[in-house]
Structures are given as structure tokens and as C-alpha cells.
Design goal:
Helices cover 38% and strands 21% of the residues.
Length: 452
Amino acid sequence: MKHLIAKYNIPGPRYTSYPTVPYWDKEGISLNNWKESVKRSFNESNDTEGISLYIHLPFCENLCTFCACHKLITKRHEVEEPYINTVLKEWNLYCDLFDTQPKIKDIHLGGGTPTFFSSKNLKQLIDGIFDRADKTLDFELSYEGHPSHTSEEQLQTLFNMGARRNSFGIQDYDPLVQKAIHRIQSYDQVKKINDLSRKIGYTSISHDLIFGLPFQKEDSIRDTIRKTISLKPDRIAFYSYAHVPWIKGVGQRGFDENDLPKESEKRRLYELGKQLFFDAGYIEIGMDHFALPTDSLAIAMNKKKLHRNFMGYTSGKTQLMIGLGMSAISDSWYAFAQNDKTIKGYTKQVNNGILPIFRGHLLTDTDLIIRKHILNLMCHLETEWKYGLDLTKRKAITVRLKEMIADGIVDVNDDGVSVREEGRLFIRNICMAFDLRLIENKPETRVFSMTI
């Protein structure tokens, strides 16, 4: 396995979308085309499955040096209310496009730190969304929280608004690692917020961990995972640290690259963690995720209803996902659009009555076919040729997978492609064989993090 890791550990996309953002059309998407795409998707899916909302709440009180998200660091909480008012104005711009009342299947609050916002303002946000929308019968509200900046009042308020699932960024419990990544929080703080969530009635709690951080060793990862397992979260995300300081700048330059575990060391950290999760009864979900068999993510995987989008793996699919807030990405299935990444630009456009997108991509027929195959591989570890690929493209993909077939990580036959258990580790590499835009225009500079 060690020689395969060295062979396939190359820069590659994480495939939260296809095409991936660096390969969106350079000319972007016109505002009219984006609106038409949203209306088309809404009309096709609102009555049958509803729509999803992702709301980006970008503020954090402190900078975590591992973070690659679009965020604003401030301790000035007077920024909350104006930002929420702008988000609700943006939502109204979308509602004005629709002929009927939207039915919302799920809302996810991401960031940044959503629990930077007060309970009062979080309630104002969710209430404001439903001034012009209804809930589906299986509506779900979920959010990301910082264990050191989440109160019982916030947990209860969001629960009362419909939240049954939350996610806490833990990363690592080792004091040396925490200092390096500027994420200081104790096990007792995490236990307190985890236990409060259970007491209030949350049915799915997720903890996010990262391997490959500076100064991480096998003993520290073992300790972190044992502490995590002792709290029995329903889901665990075990992400590979993506070191991309050429993209994310000063934050990820907060430590020396020599402090990061080497490739073989990093892989051992993952294999150790994976085995500990298995020993504790967790099931592996796609890439980077583990869940208890009773969690909706595991149930969706078993029923082949697992989905993947810009937020990662989800237990249900909606055709239309609208992203609200600075830098948020929307997905109409037929097109993608990203909002202005600056608070000033985002606010100005919304206040002028303009949807604040600054780039996007209108998918071609070929894009839609490849998207389906990559989604199948990322979610179900298999895909069938019947999803629109002609014989020429099938043969070309098979040729690109030839070495992986020989290495025993993937099988290809007349029906399609299936990933072997040994191939889970290389799922991003397998998807790259389908990625026509990447193949036709390989980047000349470093764009992606390493695949393993």
C-alpha cells in the first residue's frame, strides 16, 4: 500500500462539484442565465422535494490557521444585525423569481462561525426566511458551531427553530497542535456542549477532526480519537489537512511546513484513526466521513440515496440549493453561481436589488453526464456506463484507469466502474479519470491540495 500512496498522492480536486471551481467557464454566467436556471430548477423540484438553503455566516472572533474558508475576523458583534438584514434582502430577491411559495427541505448555517451570532439574531434570520417560505414535512435545520463559542441558549433557540443536527469543529485535543493552529478548546468544553445538545434533544451530533496538522503524532491522534469516541457523536468527519497557503495566504503560513507530518506519517495517522472508528462501531461513508449505523448518513448510504454538494455529504438530495451570504455558492443542478467574496461588494449589490453573484458556470450536456458519474463514485463507489457516456469516452476512461486496474484498486467491465475496498483511499484519483475538463486543460500551476 505504501508504494501506491507514493504513486497516487498527487494534486487533485475534492469533487464537491463538477466541474470543479477552477474549471468553471472563464466568461462566467450572465445574471439572466443564472436566474433562468434557478427558475427552471425550482419549477421542476419545489413541489416534489423542496429546495435547500446554505447560509454563509462569515464572522469569527479568532483566526484558525488551518482554515481555508472565507471568513472575517472581528470581535465587534454589532456587525451581526446589518449582515442578517442583507441576507434576508438577498433571499427576497430570489423569492421574487418564483411564482409559488418555496418549500424548504433543509437549511444549513455554515461559516465562519454561525454561533458567533446571538440567539436573538439567529432567530431573526430563520424567522425572516420563513416569512416567504414553507417547510417540507421532513424539514431539517443544521449548523456548525464552535465549542468555545456556543451557549445553551443558542443550542435551545436553534432547536426550537427546527435544528436536530449540529456539527462542532474539534480538529485536535493536543495542546501543542491547538497552539499551532490557533484553535484552543478543552475536552471539558467540548463535552459540555456535546452533553447539552443531547439533553436538549439533538438527534445527530457531528465532530470534525483533521489529520496532517502540524506536530501531530500517532499518540496525539489516538488520544484525540479516543476522547471523541467517548462522547459518541453520531457522525465524525476526519479530514485531510489541505495545505494551500498559495491560495489562502497568511493564515496557513502561521507555521513551518517542516512541522507537518510527512506523507507516510500522515497516512499512518489516517489508518490509525480509521481503525479506531471501526472498532467503535462506526461505518465509513464515502471519503473522509464515518457514522454510526443509526445515523441518517449511514442509512442514506445503504439505500443509495447519499448525496454530495459544496457542504460535503448529505443524507438527501435537492435539485436546487441556494447559497445566501458573502461568498456562498448556489447550485441549480444546471448551473453554479458564487456570491461576491467581499462583504462590501456583496452588501452593495444586494442593496441595489441585484443578486450578488460574481462568477458561475452553466453546465453543458457533457458536464451533466460527467457530474452524474463522479457523484456516483464519490457517494456509492460505483457508476454505470448507461448514464450517457458514448463508447469513445468509455474507452478513453478505461485507458486512464488502466494502471489503477492493474494495481487492484478499481474494476471496470461492460456495465461500469466499481471501486474496491482498497481503492477508497484513491477515490479522488479515480474520479480524475472521468474529469474531462481537467484532462483537456491540466493546470500549469498548483491549484489543488494533495489527493491523499
